[in-house]
Specification:
single chain, 316 residues, mainly beta, six-stranded antiparallel β-sheet, five-stranded antiparallel β-sheet, 1 helix, 20 strands
Length: 316
């Protein structure tokens, strides 16, 4: 079968496969919500009119953090989720987090109430004063559990079935992780639940479409990582790869896409050569390879793949 890679075309993956956020704290959100909540939320102030506050377009004139002459929710300081300034101060608070339904990283299953009888995930647990999302996910994944939940910033729960509990707005799970102040780790009596595939070093995928994250995501990838993911979509004539987030430290760390039948490298990316377009590979079996050396680490990547048949337009 002919193997091809198209770096010039810039197709758009189907909207149904896309979230508006691929980082855990929504730092990459570039949507257009300008209310703190779609239901009864407060209107956001324009970033080019908030000169009395730390984040505005005078201090950040080049679009840093997604700021500009607009009033859309953003996360320029790397907080646990997007936010905006508001006109009506409450107890001296002049900003609020934004509840954005479309800004949920794939792999987050939601925020749930912990009634305690039993907790949403009851099979295994630990507490840690240095808890991060990936610490908890790895703890659960190493015990072969499918789900990992964090509560109150320091508690980690594992399980395979999410017992029915009240599903809550994501803002209720905004307590920072004790080990990383930019990550949400649930709340008091509230558990944020993740699929333990997030941040795995390797895996096998056969679905038509999925999201894959670099090892240890959303933490920085560790040194000395060598990871392989197989993506085989039966009956597909091509597979599209869209890197929605890419932060690799240097040229020594790399991401490669290989033909699964011949192991031929058809695309290679690193810190100096990031992906700039959607990659179209005309084969139904691709290997994703990641390597990090033993010096510097970075945030890593997230990508969406989608298999298709016939013409490219059939999946657009």
């Amino acid at each position: 079968m002919l193997v091809g890679v198209n770096l010039e075309a810039t197709p758009t993956l189907p909207p149904s496969s896309l979230s508006e956020c691929y980082t855990v704290n929504g730092e990459d959100y570039r949507g257009r919500q300008n209310l703190t909540s779609l239901q009864g939320g407060k209107p956001c102030l324009f970033w080019n009119e908030t000169f009395e506050h730390p984040y505005n377009t005078v201090k950040y004139p080049n679009g840093e953090g997604g700021l500009g002459a607009h009033n859309f929710c953003r996360n320029p300081d790397g907080d646990v989720r997007p936010w905006c300034y508001i006109a009506d101060q409450e107890d001296g608070i002049y900003w609020k987090f934004c509840e954005i339904p479309s800004c949920q990283m794939p792999g987050i299953l939601g925020c749930f109430k912990d009634n305690g009888h039993p907790p949403p995930l009851a099979e295994s647990y630990q507490t840690s004063q240095t808890l991060t999302i990936q610490n908890c996910i790895s703890f659960c994944r190493n015990q072969r559990y499918k789900l990992a939940g964090m509560e109150s910033g320091y508690a980690c729960f594992c399980g395979n079935d999410l017992d029915y509990h009240l599903h809550l707005p994501s803002l209720e799970c905004s307590h920072v992780c004790f080990g990383d102040q930019q990550q949400p780790c649930g709340g008091d009596g509230h558990v944020i639940v993740f699929d333990t595939k997030v941040g795995a070093c390797g895996g096998n995928y056969t679905s038509q479409s999925a999201v894959i994250y670099s090892p240890d995501f959303p933490d920085k990838y560790a040194a000395g990582r060598v990871c392989y993911w197989t993506i085989q979509v039966p009956g597909a004539s091509f597979i599209l790869f869209n890197f929605t987030f890419f932060s690799i430290m240097d040229q020594a760390d790399m991401v490669e896409l290989l033909d699964g039948y011949t192991n031929q490298v058809v695309a290679r990316f690193d810190g100096r050569n990031p992906p700039r377009e959607i990659v179209n590979i005309t084969v139904d079996f691709v290997i994703l390879y990641f390597y990090s050396d033993r010096t510097n680490q970075a945030q890593g990547f997230s990508l969406i793949y989608q298999g298709g048949n016939g013409t490219l337009g059939s999946v657009l």
